[in-house]
């Protein structure tokens, strides 16, 4: 059995590596050509274009590796079937159950690689790519309306005890070094009345639970009772202000940066933060479950490739089977992307929307495998 494992695993690993390198080379070339349009603008050099293309490779690896596993495994198993090696293995006692077990082990290894790249390497590389582009463009812009964050904290000043304030924060831009620009903070009391408005030219999120704001204009409105007593509106201009908040660096990065820059743990933390603020969480819950379950697609892809070994060589050459694998891989990507959007539109349970594509293809693979073993 050791010899059989060595034969299968060697062919599968080399085939998967070859397909993955081919895919990554193609996508790197596409990204590099796309970046050439920005070369020469705002000091964006050719070297930066090359570097940004390289930084996007881990993200492509995470997205494409299950497809590479499918195509590579199909190619390896089809070659074994074409040369009658797999037929000999079956004659020697390699039953369907043992064949599934043998292929499950590399599938789990591929899933572990996908998880490590998707949770550690790709988010870091994506953040560096965003920072590199933002540095060349003078910062990261969030559109005409900016980016919004929400927070809550205990009441202060003239508020009644036990009440809390709801806070809305608007950020217009972020620099490549992580500095926020065009900050506007609105604090409302429990009755929805605006109590404090803070405008700052720039600010930086600190790890100690506060933001360091610069060039601040602060406006404080009195309570209705205070206004009745003649308390005035307070206007302050401050060079600096330490604003206390629970919006830490992780929450701010999750809100301002693309979802691709977040790990599974980051998504879970940000989803918990949104739930605490009574904000919509379904989009990020689906993203969390997709991130958590996506590595298991490698196991599904290996199972989907196994039936190709039971097809006789006369049923089609290796090239036809590889083409079929490519079509299966494309259909899996389309269904995986569509399920997330359908889950949002139809309000499906997040983990069901994330697991549906892998579940469907696993059933297809096991059904095809059982039919081939039974009738072919």
Give the biggest beta sheet.
7 strands, antiparallel
Average pLDDT works out at 84
Q: In terms of structural class, how would the helical and strand content be classed?
A: alpha+beta
What oligomeric arrangement do these chains adopt? single chain
Number of strands: 7
Percent helix, as a range, is 55-70%
Low-confidence stretches: none
Radius of gyration: 27 Å
Secondary structure elements and pairings:
Elements: H1 2-35, H2 46-55, H3 57-82, H4 85-91, H5 96-136, E1 140-141, E2 147-154, E3 164-174, E4 180-188, E5 194-205, E6 210-220, H6 224-228, E7 234-244, H7 249-256, H8 264-276, H9 282-293, H10 297-305, H11 318-346, H12 350-375
Antiparallel strand pairs: 1-3, 2-3, 3-4, 4-5, 5-6, 6-7
Helix pairs in contact: 1-2, 1-3, 2-5, 3-5, 3-10, 3-11, 5-10, 7-8, 8-9, 9-12, 10-12, 11-12
Would you summarize the structure shown here?
By secondary structure, the protein is α+β, with helices and mostly antiparallel strands. It contains 12 helices and 7 strands.
Can you put this structure into words, describing what you see?
The protein is α+β, with helices and mostly antiparallel strands and 376 residues long. It has 2 domains: 234 residues, no CATH class; 106 residues, lipopolysaccharide transport protein A fold, CATH 2.60.450. It is 59% helix and 17% strand. The protein has 12 helices and 7 strands. Strands 1, 2, 3, 4, 5, 6 and 7 form a 7-stranded antiparallel β-sheet that branches. Strand 4 and strand 5 form a beta hairpin. Helix 11 runs antiparallel to helix 12. The two termini are 24 Å apart. The mean pLDDT is 84.
